[in-house]
Every structure is written in structure tokens, then in C-alpha cells.
Amino acid sequence: STPDALADLPALLTALGGIARAIALMAGQLGGEVTVSKLLVRLQEKGSGAIVAPDLLGVALPASAAHLLPRHVSLPAALDLSLASVRRRMPEAEVLFAALGAFPAGLEQTLLPHAEFVWLQEALAVLLEHHLIDLTGESRRISVSAPVNQHAWSRLQALAPDASAHTLLHTMLVRQAEWVGRAAEGIGRSSSTAHLHRVLAEEANAQRSLDALTRWRVDHTDSPTSAALLMCALAGAARFAGRHTDTLPLLAEQARVIARHWPGSPADAQAKLWLALVKTHAADLDGARADYEAALPIYRQINARLGEANALKSLGDLKVRTADLDGARADYEAALPIYRQINARLGEANA
User: What are the residues whose beta carbons fall under 8 Å from the beta carbon of 53, sequence distance 6 or more?
Assistant: First the structure.
């Protein structure tokens, strides 16, 4: 840096309250490579127009700088300017930014498909330099503030279905579904506390991810399986957080979406099964029975014997609760030989 630049730097930092994010935002608006002197002149000339959207800073402004940044300025405008700078630096980084819109709770870096997209690490670094993301915790989890994530989600929705962001997104969604779905299935087994913590932490991601799958990736062969895993995670979060009744409308809508896109599929049957389980915990026994009875013929049609047995056993459990003991016995007796046939010893013992 030149002596003049070093001389101007303290004045610039003072005017901005020492907030590095504000400085980066100003630089982004000026088109990338600018001098400290040019930033200072712009700040002196433009005043409140020098920086757009102080909300992006994520910190309270000092009194000395507050008059420069009025509260009414537009956050989307600031983000668009920052993304223009990102695009000039590395177009792929803007693709990653849009894909991150599907993960409002952040994303573990281990779920990024580095092998398939070799540019991801560099793209992360570019987003970090522009203060659009942070890395938090021991795992260096990718974190995006709520307003920035909402902007990323809007950008993702505006892209064409065949855009590169959707290709990257699909791989990330499949990995996310497998990761959180395994955790949901692991609740009640060894290390169940860790599994439950993961499911609850990822609930917002599961909701958004399921929405993204059913918007753009319906035709992919692994999408139904991923959708079923995400539905499993949402049901697990609802059950173990004690929010059965509050979550039912969302789960019911997701089950309808899955049934509309993949009717008669294993995902359709599993979604009905998970919905019925939550309805049971919410004391909606008639609704639960209807969902179990709707899942049963699907399992039979696709020859999913374990699913069929589980649906029968669940119907038996419901009938016990309503004092229909003869009906319960018939369901248990129908489930028992299926469990034996497929060597499902736990199911056999429970039946």
C-alpha cells in the first residue's frame, strides 16, 4: 500500500466505526479494485448513499457513523451489489450462494460435494471475503444470516430449472436428506441424544429442502427416497419436540405434495406412515387410522413386506387404544407371519 493509502485508512475506519463488513460492501459497489482514498472520498461525498443496507453489517453502528447509514435503505439492493462483485471475481461462487438458499439453518461443509464440484472450496472463500457467509463452530459449519439466506432463496427460485445451481443443489439435497434421515431413524437407538439434537437442529433445512426437491428435482430417480427421508426427519422433530398438533398442517401438506408427485411410490407410503404416527401422538386417531389404511395397499402393491407389516401392526396399536380388541388381534395376527417371513425379529416380538 502507498503512504497516502495508509494515511487515509484511519480516517476511513473512523468514519465507518471500524466495521470491516461496511468497507467490503462499499468496495463491492465500486466495482472491485478501488483505493482507500476513493472509498473515503465516496463516503464524504455520498454520506448515507455510500453504503446500502446497514442491516447487512450484523452489528450495531457506533453513534459517530449512525448518521451515515439511514435505516430505510434497501437490503436486496446491497446484496445485489455485493453479488455483482462476487460474480466478477468467480461466477461459480454466485451459484453456490443461490444453492445455500435451500439451507436456512446453515450447512455442514462435509455435505458439500467437493469431488463433483472441484471449485467449491474456492467459491466458499470468495463468499467469505464478501461477508455473505460465516464459518462457525468446531466443524466450521457454513452459516448464513436470515436476511441474506432469504435473498439467496429468492435468487434460487428465479433461476431456470436447468441452471447449474440446481445441479449443485440436487447433490446437496440428497446428501442432506441421507444425513438427517439417518439421524431420525436412529432416535431411540444408541446415541439417540445426538441423533435427536441433529434432527431438531436441521428441521428448518428439512422443510426448505423438501420444498426445493418438489419444486425442481421431481424427475430425478433419487428424489422420492430423499423426500421420504426428509419427511421422516420432520416427523421425528415434531414427535420429540412435543409439537405434534402445531406441525400437523405442514406435514399433511408435505405428504400431499409427495403423493401428487410420486403416487403409489415407497415415498408416498412412507410419508403417509410418518404422518399417521404424528397424528397418533396428537390424539387424532381417526386421521391416523385413515393414513395407515391408505399406506397399506401401496406397500402391498410394491411388495414392501416390512412396510406392510408395520402398517398392520400400527393399525393394531390404534385399535387397542379405541378398545377394538378383536380388530387389533386380527391386525397383529396378519402382521406376525410377515415379520417371521422376512426375519424381522424385533417386529415379530412386538407383534
Answer: 25, 73, 74, 75, 76, 77, 78, 79
Tell me the residue type at 199: V
Q: Which three cell numbers stand for residue 167?
A: 445441479
Residue whose entry in the numeric block shows the C-alpha cell 431438531:
200
What cell does 268 get? 408416498
User: Cell numbers 400431499 correspond to what residue?
Assistant: 256
Q: What's the CA gap between 9 and 197, in Å, rounded?
A: 46
CA-based nearest residue to 132, from 69, 174, 89, 70: 89
C-alpha cell at 203: 428441521
Answer whether residue 127 shows pLDDT above 90: yes
Based on the number of CB atoms within 10 Å of its own CB, is 75 exposed (0-12), middle (13-18) or buried (19 or more)? middle
Q: Tell me the angle at which helices 192-201 and 223-240 cross, rounded to the nearest 10 degrees.
A: 110
Contact 21, 131 (CB under 8 A): yes
Q: Please check the confidence at residue 337 and state whether its pLDDT lies above 50.
A: yes
How far apart, in whole angstroms, are the C-alpha atoms of residue 236 and residue 221?
Answer: 25
- Catalogue the long-range contacts made by 5-14 (C-beta closer than 8 Å, 24 or more residues apart): 5/35, 5/36, 5/37, 8/36, 8/37, 8/40, 9/36, 11/40, 12/36, 12/39, 12/40, 12/43, 14/64
In this structure, the dihedral spanned by the alpha carbons of residues 171, 173, 175 and 181, taken in order and rounded to 10 degrees, is -160
Give strand ranges (E) for 39-168: 134-136, 141-143
Nearest to 79 by CA among 164, 155, 159, 157: 155
What tens digit of pLDDT does each residue of 242-291 get?
777 777 888 888 888 889 889 999 999 989 988 898 888 888 899 999 99
Instruction: Determine the number of helices (DSSP H) and then strands (DSSP E) in the chain.
Output: 18, 2
Task: Measure the CA–CA gap between 269 and 166, rounded to whole angstroms.
Answer: 27
